[in-house]
């Protein structure tokens, strides 16, 4: 994540808070620095101030869109309708006005991240890659074709991992419907996925049992 905010204290506070929330965050204070860090890091989400020392945030949005499909959240003291319209017309995804509540910001970012993850077809986590369209699981150059239900389970566990949560047993019926008609089938699906992760040689991905609750993805 990239924070482009010219007020040093706010920039530092946001970067520190985001890193604590398990976002990998970088901070820049002007347009030139923002462009350089963006091209190196290619962040998935950008927090972008409008009023910057050497221009305005509006000018950066087309630049970001040209190179990477990042999500852009405007953070600004401008609370007028025109500023919001210009931001959205230039391609911003969301808008929050200073001073803002940090919990509201985290809520917006987590919602944005959930939408991004739900749209992903290829995901990398730990030492594995998996593709929800082709049902391929890859680790250290080795690839397995696994059942669609296992890929689906892996993605749901990944989404929960990103939320710092676990997959509750009661949610299986919501996510899997036909696959999860009986409790033993839930356990069977988890066991098969664990077996495939072991056989493909993953040393960093573990599916742990949250006893009496459900399952969680752990990255070692």
Notes on the structure:
The protein is of the alpha/beta class. It folds into two domains: 2-119, Rossmann fold (3-Layer(aba) Sandwich); 122-219, Arc Repressor Mutant, subunit A (Orthogonal Bundle), CATH 1.10.10. It has eight helices and 14 strands. It has a five-stranded parallel beta sheet with strand order 2-1-3-6-7, sandwiched between helices. A four-stranded antiparallel beta sheet has the order 8-9-10-11, covered by helices on one side.
Query: How many DSSP H or I helices?
Result: 8
* CATH architecture label of the largest domain: 3-Layer(aba) Sandwich
Largest sheet: number of strands, sense, barrel closure: 5 strands, parallel
> Could you give the count of β-strands?
14
List keywords for this structure.
single chain, 220 residues, alpha/beta, Rossmann fold, Arc Repressor Mutant, subunit A, five-stranded parallel β-sheet, four-stranded antiparallel β-sheet, 25% strand, elongated, Sig_transdc_resp-reg_C-effctor, DNA binding, transcription
Short description:
With 220 residues, the protein is α/β, with parallel strands linked by helices.
Ordered list of secondary-structure elements with their pairings:
Blueprint: E1 2-4, H1 8-20, E2 26-28, H2 31-41, E3 45-48, E4 51-52, E5 55-56, H3 57-67, E6 71-76, H4 81-90, E7 94-97, H5 102-119, E8 122-125, E9 128-131, E10 136-139, E11 142-145, H6 148-162, E12 167-168, H7 172-176, H8 183-199, E13 205-210, E14 214-219
Parallel strand pairs: 1-2, 1-3, 3-6, 6-7
Antiparallel strand pairs: 4-5, 8-9, 9-10, 10-11, 12-14, 13-14
Helix pairs in contact: 2-3, 6-8
């Amino acid at each position: 994540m990239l924070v482009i905010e010219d007020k040093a204290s706010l920039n530092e506070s946001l970067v520190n808070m985001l890193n604590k929330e398990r976002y990998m965050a970088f901070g820049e204070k002007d347009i030139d620095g923002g462009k350089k860090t963006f091209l190196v890091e290619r962040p998935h989400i950008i927090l972008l101030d409008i009023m910057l020392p050497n221009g305005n945030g509006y000018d950066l949005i087309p630049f970001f869109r040209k190179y990477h499909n990042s999500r852009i959240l405007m953070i600004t003291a401008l609370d007028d309708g025109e500023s919001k319209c210009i931001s959205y017309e230039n391609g911003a995804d969301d808008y929050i006005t200073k001073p803002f509540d940090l919990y509201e910001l985290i809520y917006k970012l987590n919602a944005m991240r959930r939408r991004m993850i739900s749209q992903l077809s290829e995901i990398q986590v730990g030492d594995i890659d998996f593709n929800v369209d082709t049902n391929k699981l890859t680790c250290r150059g080795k690839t397995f074709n696994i059942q669609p239900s296992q890929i689906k389970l892996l993605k749901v566990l990944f989404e929960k991992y990103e939320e710092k949560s676990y997959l509750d047993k009661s949610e299986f019926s919501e996510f899997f419907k036909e696959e999860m008609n009986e409790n033993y089938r839930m356990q069977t699906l988890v066991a098969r996925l664990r077996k495939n992760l072991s056989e493909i040689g993953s040393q960093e991905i573990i599916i742990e049992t949250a006893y009496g609750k459900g399952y969680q993805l752990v990255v070692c």
